[in-house]
Q: What sequence folds into this?
């Protein structure tokens, strides 16, 4: 496999991984205020993404893949809301363990990584096109 094709494959694996990361971050943000449906119920639990590097024997490069999507085991913050349907007998509601600032930072990082991989694909495509054009020229 030539270097340009290998770079396309590596960048494509990065696009897929960052796309999944963006999906998980979006889900976390969408549920940042989702409490339980009955008194004392646990709210939405933040999800985390971990990546693994996998050797592509054909290209000799390392591809990135989503290793696992886990749940954040940190404690749920409590807030006094006696009128809420999810409030326990003391009037406290468990809130999701989602920190919007952390999620926004994670989204920004994932978006930048996605854009960087997309740029690699564009440049490799341009180089392949230029190579084909050079081969056509007598």
A:
């Amino acid at each position: 496999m030539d270097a340009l094709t290998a770079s396309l494959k590596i960048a494509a694996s990065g696009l897929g991984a960052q796309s999944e990361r963006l999906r998980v971050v979006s889900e976390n943000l969408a549920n940042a205020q989702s409490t339980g449906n009955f008194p004392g119920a646990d709210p939405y639990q933040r999800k985390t993404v971990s990546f693994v590097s996998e050797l592509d024997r054909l290209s000799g490069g390392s591809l990135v893949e989503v290793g696992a999507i886990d749940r954040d085991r940190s404690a749920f913050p409590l807030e006094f809301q006696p009128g809420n349907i999810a409030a326990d007998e003391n009037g406290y509601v468990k809130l999701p363990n989602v920190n919007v600032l952390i999620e926004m930072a994670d989204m920004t990082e994932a978006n930048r990584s996605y854009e960087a991989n997309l740029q690699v694909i564009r440049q490799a495509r341009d180089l392949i096109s230029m190579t084909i054009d050079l081969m056509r020229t007598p």
